[in-house]
Design brief:
Blueprint: H1 2-55, H2 63-88, H3 92-112, H4 114-129, E1 137-140, E2 143-150, E3 154-159, E4 164-168, H5 169-174, E5 177-179, E6 185-194, H6 200-210, E7 224-230, E8 235-244, H7 248-268, H8 290-297, H9 306-311
Antiparallel strand pairs: 1-2, 1-5, 2-3, 3-4, 6-8, 7-8
Helix pairs in contact: 1-2, 6-7
């Protein structure tokens, strides 16, 4: 009985293999055609990608966007050729199953990698709209620095202190961002103060005359000297002027040069920058006799103090 079952199983297996062999022989021309079609698919996809990479720079100067489009065209070309090969092999049902599986897998991946997908889409929008570019000085998400690279997932910002910060595109796209180099100019503010004894109008004139030949200064914008507050020991004022701005060093250098010029002008015109004045409270109460207060603060003469005894 056992041998009969084994012989029956081998017989079924042999018939199955024989059927597969016959089907393989019948499909052999299709296999050859499918193999040739697959090779042609890879070659054509590569040719289309290279052609796209040469043509896209004529329409777009964004390297990230051009790489994205060429990669998508290459992938789509491969998928079209792959499904064509499956249809040659008469695997239409497999094609349908694969399409359904791709949809399910895509949905699952979209939910699992939602943040990555959001950063990717934000990167595409930034690449298309181009609100800023490499070399711009920006401030975003509390990070200030120069853009070194714009990727499809992050934006690389080199801070003024040297650190490289990779900010996700989603945060840059959603949050407020300041682009300091957008207009190519920036205002420099310098705070200073003078004594109450100085002629404030004369100080204004001296400062305006001193603010000349500063490196990068915008010639058609006037220097502004405005007083803004009465301090405890001085009158504070603000010097405002504009410079051509392409990097942070332009701003820092212009402000430093302005401070040097103001100090030299004050020294040459004998204008005083007062020191802060502090009042020392000795514990003397207002409204009482000063002699009594001093006598109260003066220590009493001790009987064992030889110096005081000799004076007496």
């Amino acid at each position: 009985m056992m041998m009969l079952e084994i012989n029956k199983a081998f017989s079924l297996l042999y018939k199955k293999l024989e059927l597969w062999a016959q089907h393989l022989i019948l499909m052999l021309p299709n296999l050859v055609i499918a193999l040739v079609a697959l090779i042609i698919t890879f070659v054509m996809a590569r040719v289309i990608q290279k052609t796209t990479q040469k043509v896209l720079p004529r329409f777009s100067h964004s390297l990230a966007l051009n790489n994205l489009v060429s990669s998508l065209i290459y992938t789509v070309s491969l998928l079209i050729g792959f499904f064509f090969v499956l249809s040659i092999l008469q695997l239409d049902k497999t094609v349908t199953s694969l399409l359904a599986g791709v949809g399910i897998i895509g949905l699952a991946l979209g939910l699992a990698f939602q943040d990555i997908a959001t950063n990717f889409i934000s990167g595409v929008i930034i690449a298309v709209r181009k609100p800023f570019g490499v070399g711009d000085v920006i401030e975003s998400n509390d990070y200030f620095g120069t853009i070194e690279r714009i990727n499809l997932r992050t934006i690389d910002i080199r801070r003024v202190t040297g650190e490289l910060v990779k900010v996700p595109n989603r945060k840059v796209f959603e949050n407020v961002m300041v682009i300091f180099t957008h207009y190519g100019i920036r205002r420099v503010d310098v705070k200073a103060a003078v004594s109450y004894e100085e002629d404030l109008e004369r100080v204004q004139q001296v400062v305006k005359e001193a603010m000349t030949d500063i490196r990068g200064m915008v010639a058609h914008k006037d220097v502004e000297v405005v007083y803004d507050a009465f301090g405890e020991s001085s009158v504070s004022f603000l010097v405002r002027f504009w410079i051509h701005y392409g990097r942070q060093f332009d701003y820092v250098s212009a402000r430093s040069e302005a401070i040097i010029k103001i100090k030299k002008a004050f020294d040459a015109n004998n204008i005083q920058i007062p020191y802060p004045i502090q009042n020392v409270n000795l514990g003397i109460k207002a409204g009482e006799n000063l002699r009594e207060q001093i006598a109260f603060l003066k220590p009493e003469v001790g009987e064992d103090d030889p110096v005081e005894q000799n004076k007496s």
